[in-house]
Amino acid sequence: MVERIPPAPFEGALWIGGYWDWTGDRYQWIGGRWETARRGYSYRAPGWVREGALWRLDLGGWVAR
After folding, report:
1. For residue 14, which of 37, 40, 43, 48 is within the disulfide window of CB 3.0 to 4.6 Å?
2. How far is residue 55 CA from its own chain's centroid?
3. 3-state DSSP call for residue 1?
């Protein structure tokens, strides 16, 4: 999936990229969005993590530095 990033809506905006989510019967693209950066935090992107024979979606989010 190639995601087109729209122009930033305000100065200092941080682009949060989209990801694929599982809806129970198919994958669905969740589009990216602009957010305000949070001082003292880093953003960890969502991603699929293998746990044994299974996969789970780690939604990521803001993590204190």
Report:
1. 37
2. 17
3. coil
- Assign residue 58 a region: left if phi > 0, alpha if psi is -120 to 50, beta otherwise? beta
* Distance (Å, whole) CA 34 – CA 55: 27
Name the DSSP class of 7.
P
Beta bridge partners of 64: 41
- Alpha-carbon distance of 56 to 26, in angstroms, equals 14
The pLDDT tens digits of the residues spanning 3-18 come to 999 999 999 999 999 9
Closest CA to 32 of 9, 56, 64, 63: 9
Work out whether the CA dihedral 37, 38, 44, 46 comes out positive or negative: negative
**Could you give the CA distance from residue 55 to residue 39 in angstroms, rounded to a whole number?**
32
pTM, rounded to two decimals? 0.82
